[in-house]
Amino acid sequence: MPRLCRAHRRRDPITAVRIGGRGLLIALLVLAGTVTLAACSNEDGPYVEIQGGGFIFNIREAEAYYGLTLRPLRRLVDGTVIEVDFEDPAGGPDIAVKETVMGSRLNYTFRTPGLAGIRKNKDYRAVVLVKSPKAGEVLARYEKTFRSDVDQSVLPEKPLTVGPGYTPNPELQRQ
User: Any residues with CB less than 8 A from the CB of 149 and at least 6 apart, and which?
Assistant: First the structure.
């Protein structure tokens, strides 16, 4: 039976239980075991998982782009390079976006710059490459397709707003 601290003996509204040395040791061991298990990762499974992604049409800025978010499933060594090659809707070469891993993060987000030529109901491919820190050897390759349900014709020719405060574009103001 746990011993009660003075607060309980005085019948104060706040009560506490004093943990003996043995109870503290057990609590620390359980905590250490939990941390150790959490630090272990599946070294045989995939490096990352594609959590989501898709096309974004920003009407205010008259810009469209697409991107994706990755979640690491294994510990990624500092210096590991994650590269995503997005298919260019305009038909040019793939658009490569890279990030070097430094420290542990919960997710990585990649996006293209503004695009032209996005068509409705057409699949666009994104390829994720996980590369080793030193040699640049491809450790893993993942592929996903994205499809837009609207095409680029929904965007205005000029941005509706300019600047950081969404100021109305003076070029579109009627005089």
Answer: 120, 121
38-96 pLDDT, tens digit each: 445 557 889 999 999 999 999 999 999 999 999 999 999 999 999 999 999 999 999 99
Q: Cα dist. 1→4, 20, 30, 144, 146 in Å? A: 9, 11, 21, 58, 61
Could you give phi then psi for residue 5, rounded to 5 degrees?
-80, 175
Residue 140's domain comprises 48-162
Does residue 65 share a domain with residue 16?
no
Same domain? 27 vs 74: no
Q: Cα separation of 75 and 10, whole Å?
A: 51
Same domain as 71, residue 28 = no
pTM of the model: 0.72
